[in-house]
Amino acid sequence: MAQRRIGLWFIGACGGVASTSALGLAALSRGLSPSTGLVTALPQLANLELDHPSDFVLGGHELRRATFLTAARELHRRSGVFDERTLSACAPDLEAWSSNILPGVSFQPDPAIVALTDRPDARRMNTAREAIDAIQSDLRAFHSTHGLDQLIVVNAASTEPPFALAKEHQSLDRLLGAMVRPSPAALPTSSTYAFAAIDAGYPYLNLTPSRGATMPAIEELARERGVPHAGQDLKTGETLIKSALAPLFARRNLRVLSWVGHNILGNRDGLVLNDPENKASKVKSKDSLLAELLGYKPQSIVTIEYVESLDDWKTAWDHIHFEGFLGTKMAMQFTWQGCDSLLAAPLVIDLARLTALAQRRGESGALTHLASFFKSPLGSTEHDLARQFALLERYAQSAAD
Questions:
Q1: Quick check: pTM over 0.90?
Q2: Are 318 and 239 in contact (CB under 8 A)?
Q3: Domain 238-338 CATH (choose: 3.30.360.10, 3.30.1360.120, 3.30.70.20, 3.40.50.720)
């Protein structure tokens, strides 16, 4: 059987997550890395017909002067991750894929993200429709040039501020009318990309808490076009632990009185989150699951602070105050430290493989079986990590039958 060719198009192609995903695919293809960190390498998913790392071709949009290789080398230099042997061996792949990186496209871009832009040919459009047309032109050219069987668009850009939905976002007809007007209320950049991808028949993965495809009009579009999508906001650190740990208190009938989580991180994502409006999206995403998991809302505090010297490393310190038998108050604390891009990249590869499979199976709309990967999973209110993973296991069993 001929080898499939699967395209991955990154929004924010030279950020830490995208460049680490690129290095990971190259290293896996060359047999230079074990599959540690890949959910799709688990025995429970072994019977699925998933694409091999060597099947992928990468490209993307970027607002900065960088490549997959220079971004990976910067991460290596600043954060002490990877090793020189792997970087050197994979350099030809990263350089080849970097030739597919094009200047970013935006409509009403976010000021905190614009401040990081140094690419003079970055394109700013007057309407959402113009931006969508430009994005689709780039996607179709990439698809054609590389003879791709499938193409998946991945939002790995920095977090946008919250975007409130209005009446024009409630139906596809209304949104189509709004997109031709130069109104900033039409679509944020993440949703512009989501519309462009899904309308062209390409699945869309939202790794961020930005609005993306989360509006009735774009969900309607996904159903009409028969295109799957998934998101939102990858679950890689403190929230991952919450989704595993909070059910412990619920199942032992221990009442959580308060849950305080302080997060510090560096890198460009941290810098963007230093803006109060952008931070609001992330805090909401991180703080939303406790009530679902516990069945009540304890007092909770979530903070996110930018610490430049940490680079790609992030640390979370959590204090859980809970009540036990005979009204006795007790406490639990934990500290989590991890490298942001190294935690996220294997999940990107997992999601790409699983989404490509879902499209081949004719699935469309929000992929609810991928809930365990996200803080705010689309199409699902389940936040318990064990139950979320059970959804994936059941899907894998049915898809392999």
A1: yes
A2: no
A3: 3.30.360.10
